[in-house]
């Protein structure tokens, strides 16, 4: 049982970012997701339906 808990901790542990990753691309993706969710909630709050 202790081995299972240890493996679960290792899977859930937040890993450090690789310094070779393009940080600008990650920022773009995160901002794009935030804009998408904000637009979704704006449409829902104002009862705007797209399509038929």
Can you offer a commentary on this structure?
With 52 residues, the chain is mainly α. It has a domain at 20-52. Helix content is 65%, strand content 0%. It contains 2 helices and no strands. The chain has helices at 2-12, 23-45. It is elongated. It starts with a helix and ends in a 7-residue tail after the last helix. The model has no long low-confidence stretch (mean pLDDT 87). Keywords: Membrane, Transmembrane, Transmembrane helix. The chain crosses the membrane at residues 21-43.
Quickly describe the structure.
By secondary structure, the protein is an all-alpha fold.
Key attributes of the depicted protein:
mainly alpha; membrane; transmembrane; single chain; 52 residues; transmembrane helix
What is the straight-line distance between the termini? 54 Å
* Overall helicity: 55-70%
**Order of helical and strand elements:** HH
Tally of DSSP β-strands: 0
The DSSP helix count reads: 2
Seen as an oligomer or otherwise, the chain set is single chain
Output the radius of gyration. Answer: 19 Å
Q: What can be said about the biggest beta sheet?
A: none
What is the overall pLDDT average? Answer: 87
> Which structural class best describes the helix and strand composition?
mainly alpha
Shape: elongated
Stretches with pLDDT under 50, minimum 5 residues: none
**What is the percentage of strand-forming residues?**
under 5%
Q: How is the secondary structure organized here?
A:
Layout lengths: L1 H11 L10 H23 L7
């Amino acid at each position: 049982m202790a081995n299972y808990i240890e493996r679960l901790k290792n899977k859930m542990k937040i890993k450090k970012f690789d310094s070779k990753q393009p940080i600008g691309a990650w920022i773009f993706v995160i901002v794009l997701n935030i804009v998408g969710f904000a637009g979704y909630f704006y449409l829902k709050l104002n009862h705007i339906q797209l399509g038929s």
